[in-house]
Amino acid sequence: MKQRKSNVRWLFAIVFFVIGIIAYMDRSNISVIAPYMMKDLSLDKGQFGLLASFFAAGYALMQVPSGFLAEKFGPRKMLTIALVWWSAFTILTGVVKNHGLVYTVRFLFGVGEAPMYPSNAVFNSYWFAKDEKGRASSMLLAGSYFGPVIAPVITISIVQLFGWHAVFYIFGAVGILLALLWAIIAKDLPEQHRMVNEAEKQYIMTNRDIVATEKSSAPWSAFFKYFSFYAIAGQYFVVQFIIALFLIWLPTYFTEQYHITLKDSAWLSSPPWLVMFFLILTGGTVSDALLKMGKSRFVARALIAIVGFITFAVALFLAIRTDNLYANVAWISISLGGIGVTMGMSWAAATDLGRNFAGSVSGWMNLWGNIGAMLSPFLAGKLADVIGWTNTLQFMIIPVVFAIGLWFFVKPDRPLLVGNKEVRKLK
């Protein structure tokens, strides 16, 4: 009788979903409590935007090293260290009062979160079949954007009960507990995990999209010869530039544009991230289904990403043309859902291009994405002060057109490994 395969890999996908929730709640909480922090620390919009920029700077600088380290030491060890590190600096965010120190803490917090996505990319390369990677990648991303759905309600409740400092203490403690859980249950390879039965192990090993499991260094000199390596980074710069803007400024946008209370803006900030959460999962499922139907990876990854960008641009244009608050929320929700689909396809395409070196390729992509995220909150805050929110958001459509063009050069059907002498040595 044929053994029915276990599904331990999907248990880990759920764990990554939870990690994503905690990571983005840690990151996005400052957007919800912005008025309290700005008042207590005497920060204007530009200075407050710099908090997100310093986080993004630390996060971006560590992307490529994090990919290398995840490939060298494995996702289990790297993610454990990352969870403890960023949780400790989450707690410190609520402790420091000095301007210089709070910027330093947010920079180091970004350094700590940096290994999360590259480690996930490496883990997914070894634990999932090639036609499961769209869904696998979407789980961490979906968790990341489910965090902002529930963060406003939870965060405001904590602030009202204990003050804004307690937000960082509580979420930091939760992150440390999650690090302990991950360290106990995780393994780098399914071959090493006792709960993975023989049927699941053989299924994964037969269908995963890698060359070999031996540790090796990424052939960077070869990667730089391919325009697809630059294209996936360039379009992701645009993705994260846009997401960071909304992540930091959405509640403030609602309060200033529609003159509502912070509590009301917190509730209205949740639907856009909820729509993004659902569309990220849907995009990953549809992408994998198209691959199983025999469609090319360009259709399953790039075409879906392009549709996501177009959806974002059209819905954002309609959002800024309405004076009705609830219509605005609805259109922004669709808009962010579209950019979420594109983000999910970016990570799936990065693992397609990188294969064994998914950590390095995704780290490279996320480096440029977070340079965009580093610039976005500060520039958007300054622009909003000068030209208003409507014109600031309207400008976001311009880089999207450029990013759509770049997707035609990503070419996920052509892995960066193919033809490289450095890679043939692994086989």
TrEMBL record:
Q: Does the keyword Transmembrane apply?
A: yes
Lipid bilayer topology? Multi-pass membrane protein
One Pfam match, given by its short name, reads MFS_1
Residues crossing the lipid bilayer are 7-25, 45-66, 78-95, 140-160, 166-185, 227-250, 270-291, 298-320, 326-349, 361-380, 392-410
Q: Which domain of life is it from?
A: Bacteria
Where does it primarily localize? membrane
User: Where is this gene product found?
Assistant: Cell membrane
Tell me which residues make up the Major facilitator superfamily (MFS) profile domain.
12-414
Keywords for this protein: Membrane, Transmembrane, Transmembrane helix, Transport
Which PROSITE patterns does the record associate with it? MFS
Instruction: Please give the name of this protein.
Output: MFS transporter
Instruction: Kindly list the organism's lineage.
Output: Bacteria, Bacillati, Bacillota, Bacilli, Bacillales
